[in-house]
Amino acid sequence: MDAAAGSGGSAGATQDGSISNGGTDGATPTFTFFVTSDKSATGNLGGLKAADQRCQSLAALVGQGQQTWHAYLSADSDPDSGNTPVNARDRIGEGPFYNSKGVLMAQDVDALHALLGDADLFLDENGNKVPGNWSGSPTPIEHDILTGSQADGTLAAGKTCDSWTSADSSTVAVVGHSDGLGPGGATTGTYTSWNAAHDNGSCADTAPKGGAGRLYCFAVH
Question: Which CATH number does the domain 33-220 belong to among 3.40.50.300, 2.60.120.260, 3.10.100.10, 3.20.20.10?
Fold first, then answer.
């Protein structure tokens, strides 16, 4: 694990299953990242705004709706920002970043982008591991997470499912590996990248190559 792993403080499960300490007491939030448990069959997410709302809704279900959540997605053009290109790294705040179990992932954006994928670190909002190539994983593999980004978190031009509005087989998107593993557990080449492992098959179907249309979500604080 490449993260500075350790408890983020007082985060923990409440009786209703939510994660405590979202920062409303003035403390630094200790739950600021998750992989979505829900899925999308295609790359048409309804654009960045709809993707952000997806993150917000899932966060609310685990008691984190008081924070503002953004999807980690780059886009070739965003109507809400003057139809200009968008870099995923610019949408997620400055850190520190903690997963849904309160484990510190990275202190800042640069440290975040120096990480490798890790099934024990890149968890969904419920604290569950994402099915992938890790030993004992359930099937099917779903570790291909939509990002449309290069490894440094900047736009991978032309590889964003037309800014997350296309389900066309002629368009593609860059995906990362949440577990940092390739076929058979391989740890070579870009397989280790959590945000820029390879292009998906097409935006018409997120499943081939090991995806399910999941997203990374970050609390902006």
Answer: 3.10.100.10
